[in-house]
Amino acid sequence: MVMGVVVRRALAVFTKPTGQLLQLAVALFTAAAILSATAASASANPKYAGIVVDAKTGKVLYEDHADAPRYPASLTKMMTLYLIFEALESGRLSKNSPITFSRNAAAEPPTKLGVPAGKSITVEQAILALVTKSANDVATAVAETLGGSEANFARMMTNKARQLGMTSTTFRNAHGLPNSEQKTTARDMARLGIALRDHFPQYYDYFSTRSFTYAGRKIGNHNNLLGRVKGVDGIKTGYIRASGFNLVTSVATGGRSIVAVVMGGKTARSRDAHMAELIQRYLPKASTGADNYLIAKGPSTQPVRAAAIDLPANAPLPPARPELPVTAYAQEDTVAAKVALAEALSGEGDYDPLPTASTPVSGWVIQVASTPTQQDARRVLERTAAQAPGILANAIPFTETFELKGQIYHRARFGGFESKTAAWDACALLKKQNVDCYAVQN
Questions:
Q1: What is the pLDDT of residue 408?
Q2: How many domains does the chain have?
Q3: Alpha-carbon distance 317 to 199, whole Å?
Q4: Out of 112, 133, 134, 243, which one is annotated catalytic?
Q5: Are residues 35 and 176 in the same domain?
Q6: Catalytic site residue 77?
Q7: Is the pLDDT of residue 396 over 50?
Q8: Which range is the signal sequence, renumbered to this chain (predicted)?
Q9: Which of 71, 107, 218, 294 is the most buried (most CB within 10 A)?
Q10: Contact 195/307 with Cβ under 8 angstroms?
């Protein structure tokens, strides 16, 4: 399209006087050469990957090496923020909850906020520091607060990635500093960008924050496209030497909405210029119709809009805060146990069940019940989570079907445990609270 304009303009110059013709010809062929050089530079860059997705329909408008493994760098913090928003949604955290910095967190290298060990900031300050300054020390402090340790939080991040359909992403830390095992793809980052917009509209405006003030210092946002390209409302930049310059951008204007990803830019300026070019070229091709690509339904009857590029049909939303009294049920896979459990639950009134993972969670899990219906299994998960919030704070509830003598049953399980020992230890603690369970590798 752009080259067609160049050619038309080049032909038009033949109607000009000779001097003007020469000047315009030189200018136009120079412009054509620049465009060709830009395209060749991106394709020749071994770190490059890019994708543009229509956020309303999930249609991929552009892709280049979109499924090639890449280092996310600070795009990692998008998932860190996803889990913060999830904790806010579930009631585990409030915006004023403290995030305390350990020596480990305080010692992270720049970019950092510089909070001393033993001191704390609020959750809202942590969010602002992550979306603007991309503070590594804050990311680690959040990981230790929500996960108990960096390693466990990284496991939570990876599990959440799987639930969102990010099958090519593995996290090993919360900040994105170099780790050879921390990999993703441009396509997965697009999935995450759209999930952030669609699952957390009440928090998404944080990504458009231009600056915030901490300890008397004004801290600006690293995203240079905010306020410079019409419709850009976030999301995140990233850089380490191994990755090059990365950027995930959300654009909503004129009834159209896209999420674009550029990875492996050679400089921040060239990355930003390429992103602006992608927006200009592909935003006009995005749908102006109603959102018609749904990934999940919330706890109410309203569907959660628009996800992209083949996200799972039942991708999980943030868990609702359990508020019901608890009775423990946990049995082996026996028909008698299933019948007893169903009878015990039959008199309960209606309530919003705990949303669970849409697919079984891999690794070590603990099972707390088997039931005749999925609704019963979800009720058990909610009650167990409410009875043992400390033990299961970082666990992922999910249900899993199996067949016995021609009958379908539903296992109620919690996943996300770091090891067999961690799962066994969790079971031991649950049994002290009169919750029977057993650990198994899924």
A1: 85
A2: 3
A3: 6
A4: 134
A5: no
A6: yes
A7: yes
A8: 1-39
A9: 71
A10: yes
Helix (H, G, I), strand (E, B) or coil at 69: coil
- Answer for the pair 280, 257: CB distance below 8 angstroms, yes or no: no
Report d(CA 18, CA 27) in Å as an integer: 14
In this structure, the answer to whether residues 60 and 199 fall within a common structural domain is yes
Rounded distance between C-alpha atoms, residue 400 and residue 236, angstroms: 35
Catalytic residue among 77, 112, 133, 338: 77
Residue 262 to residue 185: CA distance in whole angstroms: 10
134 is annotated as an active-site residue: yes
| Residue 80 CA from chain centroid, whole number | 8
CA 148/CA 151 separation, integer angstroms: 9
- Asked if residue 184 and residue 113 are part of one domain, the reply reads yes
Average pLDDT on 157-175 reads 95
Q: List the binding residues for substrate.
A: 236
Tell me how crowded residue 9 is: count the other CB atoms within 10 A of its CB: 15
Residues 313, 346: contact at Cβ < 8 Å?
A: no
Q: Is the pLDDT confidence value at 323 over 80?
A: no
Task: Kindly state whether residue 259 falls inside one of the protein's structural domains.
Answer: yes
For the annotated binding site, the residues are 236
**Cβ(338)–Cβ(370) under 8 Å?**
yes
State the residue range of the domain holding 38.
Answer: 2-43
**Among 63-67, 303-307, 406-410, which range has the highest average pLDDT?**
63-67
Which candidate, 391, 415, 400, places its Cα nearest to that of 158? 415
pLDDT tens by residue, 171-228: 999 999 999 999 999 999 999 999 999 999 999 999 999 999 999 999 999 899 998 9
144 and 94 both lie in a single domain: yes
In Å, what is the CA distance from 304 to each residue of 228, 292, 293, 299, 309? 29, 10, 10, 10, 15
Q: Are 13 and 30 within one domain?
A: yes
Q: Are strands 303-304 and 211-214 parallel, antiparallel or unpaired?
A: unpaired
Assign 134 a pLDDT band (cuts: 50, 70, 90): very high
- Average pLDDT estimate for 136-145: 97
Query: Long-range contacts: 372-377, Cβ < 8 Å, 24+?
Result: 372/338, 372/339, 372/341, 372/342, 372/407, 372/409, 372/410, 373/342, 373/410, 374/399, 374/401, 374/410, 376/341, 376/342, 376/345, 376/410, 377/410, 377/411, 377/412
Residues 292 and 371 in one domain: no
Instruction: Reply yes or no on whether the pLDDT at 330 is more than 50.
Output: no
Q: How many CA atoms lie within 13 A of 72 on its CB side?
A: 31
Among the listed residues 74, 243, 250, 287, the single catalytic one is 74
Is residue 313 domain-resident?
no
Report the C-alpha gap between 370 and 351 in whole angstroms. 20
Residue 2 pLDDT > 80: no
